[in-house]
Amino acid sequence: VQLVESGGGLVQPGGSLTLLCAASGFTFSSYAMSWYRQAPGKERELVAAINSAGGSTNYAGSVKGRFTISRANAKNTVYLQMISLKPEDPAVYYCNAVHGLGPPYEYDYWGQGTQVTVSS
């Protein structure tokens, strides 16, 4: 099982980034997918989630209206489009896949993370 994030980097305040998470080794279309983030000294927090079919999403209040999660099951990929990035958005962003009734989930996979930095 692999979840490989990409797309992170340095962006100015107000800028945009799109993160990608490429999945392999499991039946991607059967898993709910989420993006979490963790800033230094803070706990990991849920940013956005999408159900297996892609028809239902939810967001943390701090990113609602600025971030959009989507998925392409044919490509085994989940995306996080981020606009209007703020100084409080920098963190390592992690991709998560879960399946089954939970938490805790019987199947729960994590990527290695991708760094997002917001600085002028």
Shape estimate: globular
- Provide a count of the helices: 0
Helix content: under 10%
Specify the structural class: mainly beta
Termini separation comes to 37 Å
- Rg (CA only): 14 Å
The string of secondary-structure elements, in order, is EEEEEEEEEEE
The description of the largest β-sheet is:
7 strands, mixed
The proportion of strand residues reads over 45%
Overall pLDDT confidence: 96
Total DSSP E strands: 11
Low-confidence stretches: none
Write the layout of secondary structure elements.
Layout: E1 2-6, E2 9-11, E3 17-24, E4 32-38, E5 45-50, E6 57-59, E7 67-72, E8 77-82, E9 91-99, E10 107-110, E11 114-118
Parallel strand pairs: 2-11
Antiparallel strand pairs: 1-3, 3-8, 4-5, 4-9, 5-6, 7-8, 9-10, 9-11
Provide an overview of this structure.
The chain has 120 residues and is mainly β. It is built from no helices and 11 strands. The protein has strands at residues 2-6, 9-11, 17-24, 32-38, 45-50, 57-59, 67-72, 77-82, 91-99, 107-110, 114-118. Strands 2, 4, 5, 6, 9, 10 and 11 form a 7-stranded mixed sheet that branches.
